[in-house]
Amino acid sequence: MINPRILFFIFNALIVILALFLIFKINGEYGKVIHGTSWDAKQYGNKYIISLKNHSEIVESLTDFVKTQKIKAGKISGIGAVNSVTLRFFNPETKQYVDKTFSEQMEISNLTGNISLKDNLEYLHIHITLGNSEYNSVAGHLLNAKINGAAEFEIETYQNAKIERKFDSEIGLNVYDFADR
Ligand code: FE
To answer: 181 in a domain, yes or no?
Structure first.
């Protein structure tokens, strides 16, 4: 016959293990919720689901997110709606930028970008494709865009990675710097 004290101990231990299992399971499903001034996010390991607040600016808000989370390398994707966007076109002949602002309601059909470091500061490089009410699209290098509606983004970080950039005077752009160190 097993000592009732031992049985009682085993029973309590099982209850504690079950409670811990449920807590971890719930936390796993709900992720870690993080709040910023212009964004809310849920973290699942090295992946973040990010919702930007309405009327916030995309590049500024994502940069703020990356800085507060201390992300040094990763990739960005997203969809949403904006009512103003400024794109930048680089002319490789003249090495000059041509910026153009579109002030109308548009859907982000795709936003793709990456996160790296330049001079040890977080550097976001983002391209975007947008569609307007006529179902025409514009696309280019994203300088800034104002959210007007939904703003659903994802960032996946590369753990223990350090991706750096430097200015290449021949090309006229900040390009990846994979020099041996
Ligand atoms: Fe670009």
So the answer is: no
Q: Are residues 111 and 152 in the same domain?
A: yes
The DSSP 8-state label assigned to residue 2 in this structure reads: -
How many whole angstroms from 66 Cα to the centroid of ligand 1? Answer: 18
Count how many domains the chain has.
2
Instruction: Domain of residue 3: give its range.
Output: 1-30
CA 76–ligand 1 middle distance (angstroms): 13
How many Å lie between the centroid of ligand 1 and the Cα of residue 22? Answer: 45
56-104: pLDDT as tens digits: 999 999 999 999 999 999 999 999 999 999 999 999 999 999 999 999 9
Distance 86 CA to ligand 1 centre (A): 13
